[in-house]
Amino acid sequence: MFLSLSPRPVLLTATAAALLGASALAFAPVATAEPAPAPAAKKAAARPNILVILMDDLGWRDVSYAGSEFYETPAIDKLARDGMRFDNAHVAYPRCTPSRYALMTGRNPARAQIPGGTGGEVMAASEFTVAEALHDAGYATFFVGKWHLGKTPDAMPDTQGFDVNIGGGSAGAPGSHFFPYGAEKGRAMGPGLDTGKPGEYLTDRLTDETIRLIEAHEKAKPGQPFFAYLSHYAVHTPLQAKPELKAKFSKKLAAMGGAKADAYLARDGETKKYQDNVTYAAMLASMDESVGKLRAALDRLGIADNTIIVFTSDHGGLSNRGAGGNREVATSNLPLRAGKGHVYDGGTRVPMIVLWPGHTKAGSRSNAFVSNTDHYPSWLEMAGAALRPKSHVDGVPYLPLLAGGKGDPARVTYWYSPRPRPNQTGDTAAGAVRVGDWKLVRNYDPSKKGELFNLAVDPGENKDLAASDPKRAASMRQQIDGWLASIGAAKPHLGRGAEADKKAARKEKRRAAKGKETAREQDED
């Protein structure tokens, strides 16, 4: 069934549709695969709303507060000043689908052989998601934007715990960031975005849809907390932005001396050295406006003081391409190494801000390691709901950090990327294990050796210590090999397969000839 909060159709679950009144939205828990937890300790009236703002391909240094001198993010900077910024936040995988799987399930995607194995690029219906857990705890649940966790109707947001789905479909990228948006061949954007005004910008549209959902819910069920998950398609390719913002940043770049000739570093494929992409800067400006607009809406509705905001990204910025490639690259993650697709910190480290009025100290910062698997148990604790340890097996609640805690200095974390894309982003098959500040990169390409880094003194992963500390390197290699064997991880591929590599090489030539990417090629990311 479809509901119109505006003239645009919105997909509802059967449960939500059955409970829809003439002038109000009503929601009820859906059946779940996991037994119901013990009753929540908090009273329903005191439970906070949760608003999640997930960006796509936003790098750790793509925000002003992290040191960017070219990009401008005043609203995000204000959010950081008002809440707590996490300066050592990471994701469980440096690409879209596996990272989003980790956020929704609290599980490392290697456990489900995502990608490169039986899990493919789909989150199984049997997974008990954070949305389902919050729904069972009495929350109304809204999804808006990029889903990218399945291709069939039974693998969409409305079957994974969300009452309402706007825009969530199989697409990994829009055909255009301007209406009509479209999607790559064989993919779909999801319901609610098929109508609009010509030239309407997707980031603005998704922001407005989220606000409409919150407004409608507050009018109909003001006593019921909500979980709103805004998953932007920005700042993923295609790189497209509003003309007036592009003009602004073109002038700024010119005033800074213009783009530099030595644009790339011959490392990890090719690494972009400077943040100087005018279109990307303009896309970031629209993204920043979205954050400001959402906060203004919460203030206007009188619910800002009881709404948690979590702002983050699905992985590091698109900073690398294959050696000798001609692909337009969006940003630079330096001084961190590499970016999207790589298990180095440039690919896994992301911006993260949490604002919980009455709980987070304004302007506070945490340097403790956190992963996006940690959101699931953290949001349950914030909601006063019982944890689901059989579901979020890799998640560690970060609420103690909000109170000034230091975290576990010896925490062990794994990354595993068995399906590389050397022609697109310059990465090769690799895994990594981090124990405290020590990190071992396990390279499966026979032309590359394993690498050992002490991140406390070398956050850019520039000095390989494997030769000088062979015992530690060997021990950590055994550690990651043992873990991968214990979970039945997929076998690594040196490329995407011989035929896939040839196909990717042909696409690279077409990109060079056309000077742009097709929507299908964008989704290959």
What does this structure look like?
The protein is of the alpha/beta class. It has a single domain (2-30, 49-523), classed as Alkaline Phosphatase, subunit A, CATH 3.40.720. The chain has helices at 14-18, 74-82, 96-105, 130-136, 202-220, 243-255, 278-300, 345-348, 375-382, 399-402, 422-425, 470-487, 498-514, 519-523, and strands at 2-4, 9-12, 49-55, 84-86, 89-90, 140-145, 164-166, 226-231, 264-265, 270-272, 307-313, 320-321, 352-355, 364-366, 370-371, 412-417, 430-435, 438-443, 451-454. The strands form 4 sheets. Strands 1-2-7-6-8-3-11-13-4-14 form a 10-stranded mixed beta sheet, sandwiched between helices. Strands 16-17-18-19 form a 4-stranded antiparallel beta sheet, with helices on one face. Strands 9-10-12 form a 3-stranded antiparallel beta sheet. A hairpin with a 7-residue loop joins strand 18 and strand 19. It is globular, with a radius of gyration of 22 Å. The two termini are 32 Å apart.
Kindly report how far apart the N and C termini lie. Answer: 32 Å
**Count of the separate structural domains:** 1
Indicate the overall shape: globular
Main sheet attributes: strand count, strand direction, barrel closure: 10 strands, mixed
Could you give the topology of this structure?
Blueprint (H helix, E strand, L loop, with lengths): L1 E3 L4 E4 L1 H5 L30 E7 L18 H9 L1 E3 L2 E2 L5 H10 L24 H7 L3 E6 L18 E3 L35 H19 L5 E6 L11 H13 L8 E2 L4 E3 L5 H23 L6 E7 L6 E2 L23 H4 L3 E4 L8 E3 L3 E2 L3 H8 L16 H4 L9 E6 L4 H4 L4 E6 L2 E6 L7 E4 L15 H18 L10 H17 L4 H5 L2
Parallel strand pairs: 3-8, 3-11, 4-14, 5-15, 6-7, 6-8
Antiparallel strand pairs: 1-2, 2-7, 4-13, 9-10, 10-12, 11-13, 16-17, 17-18, 18-19
